[in-house]
Amino acid sequence: MDRLRLAIRKENREAIKVMTKHGVKLIRPSVDQIEEFKAVAQKAMQRQVGKSFSAAVKKEVLAHLAAYRKTEK
Known about the structure:
There is one protein chain. The chain is mostly helical. The protein has one domain (2-71). Helices cover 75% and strands 0% of the residues. The chain has 3 helices and no strands. The chain has helices at 2-21, 31-48, 55-71. The protein starts with a helix and ends with a helix.
């Protein structure tokens, strides 16, 4: 899995170089913008509960994500 992750990150860096070479500008969102994005994403995910996935699946995925984030920081 580490090999795959490294390969993906390398490809992402290369893609960013190509895009910036062609005029795409990289920006860093402010803390407020990040929080706003998270709130919008949370609302969108909540609207999908019962349509695209169950509440139980959402809970399970978020638990796995939280556990992963604790170990990967």
